[in-house]
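Page header: ASSEMBLY MODEL / two components / 616 residues total.
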Amino acid sequence: MKKWLLHTFLACWACHFASAEPYAIVVHGGAGADPAQMEPEEIEGVKARIQSVLQQGLSDLKAGRSALRVVEEAVRSLEDDPWFNAGQGAALNSEGEAELDAAIMDGSNLRCGAVADVRRTRNPISLARWVMEKTPHVLLVGPGADRFAQQSGLEMVEPEYFITERARRALRKKQGTVGCVALDIRGHLAAATSTGGLTNKRPGRVGDSPIIGAGTFADDRSCAVSCTGVGEEFIRHQVAGQISQRIRLTHVTLPESVRQTFADGLPDDVGGVIAVNRKGEWVMHFNTPGMSRGAADSAGHFEVAIGK
Amino acid sequence: MKKWLLHTFLACWACHFASAEPYAIVVHGGAGADPAQMEPEEIEGVKARIQSVLQQGLSDLKAGRSALRVVEEAVRSLEDDPWFNAGQGAALNSEGEAELDAAIMDGSNLRCGAVADVRRTRNPISLARWVMEKTPHVLLVGPGADRFAQQSGLEMVEPEYFITERARRALRKKQGTVGCVALDIRGHLAAATSTGGLTNKRPGRVGDSPIIGAGTFADDRSCAVSCTGVGEEFIRHQVAGQISQRIRLTHVTLPESVRQTFADGLPDDVGGVIAVNRKGEWVMHFNTPGMSRGAADSAGHFEVAIGK
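Prediction written out in full:
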């Protein structure tokens, strides 16, 4: 067989094989909001955005894009959407400023990047990826992180860009952290989370979102996880990391690991998680009245919901 | 029996009972330094300070002080000592500034506090404890953390206070993060870690020390851990949390859990850990040429070492 012919044959075979592999995307737009107390306009806005993010992600995964790229793109879209507490529309701290946190992790090699207390970088999740790709570090915080974004040519904005009238009025306690986990057709997992943190938080407070192992974790050997809720509890109980460790160390299923982790000392009404594994199994679990969320996969499942 | 007599009897009995309970303290002054490349003056200085911290801690534990208080005091002493890369004498970032990180955790209730990118608080470990005790938060970073220290009445210093001639010359790559874990006579565990981070780091870079579950963790149900080394790897592999989880989930011994965690993908020459459990068993493990360290316990063990 001529060499080019062999290559072509192998490529086609790989392509055929790949297209049979499962893929999945799961998204959250924050736990804590009770749909019974949301305006209809908000419910529709949130659900429509999650649906569109899922559709885009599903189509990208089907086309062979990496889970890493898909979770970054999904979270970027949600950062740019003022409905969610991440990027534009973020919750404001006690001095009326937006301070943004984000993290991303590649389950195929445990590489990860995170930023906290960012104030001028339009898309913190892309800065987190930049930290992962372009530095030997995992976590950059504060003015040093914004400066790195600027030096790297990422899009910078004035601090006012993030502040919406809605966040300023703080109509409700915003807990709408956003996150995404995905499985790609090569069998790799990735997770991404982005947030403005707690409304009226003390300046400099950092929650679980940018903490690898607390609010964000991905490991091809177990699962990819993104959390939302009372960050301090998710740090203390290392929720994302614990879900992964239980699978690796005790070989429980993904849903069982999530259940055990929540039962292991996490308070009631604390928040929720989304997770996916290499088989394409996914979980959306929360112990709050609601969690904005959606999941879609290669088996044809597609759902978007807020309440229980 | 008269009431005061009963009280006295009970107190004495408690005292007698308590003194039979094991207690232990383990300290590190950083992994990475090769004793073969240290000046004799430095070796003596480091060992003498660790010895004195152990003696003080042991005596405090014997007197019934809490593990939490003992680890805070031990780390404060090391922060105030310019030999170590924490507090005064910290490594400087690429702009010649000291940026300090610290975390503390109480194993009896999983409460924890941490600070990162602090520049004006003399003792970051005490600020971490203050975050734990006085706020609903776990992690404060940057100017917001320093401002909180000032509002709380903690001792503030000029940024120059931290900078020693030795750190400025950066005679060697300082990796002398400091940490302490302890078991008190009530059976409670605590862990504390403090660092200036990597020499010449990018401003805003945060390593594993202030990340609960990465460089610092304590849980009465498993062990207390403090890490030192290449922070990014300790975050990625959630070293402190993983050591705890392996004990809780698979019931291995503390030394075996440390061994398995290091064998589970951690690179060579990456750093070390100290750990203690409720039985008073302790571990000092590292895969670097040396780790400044010491351990002392109620069974009469007392050792201080740097090399293998």
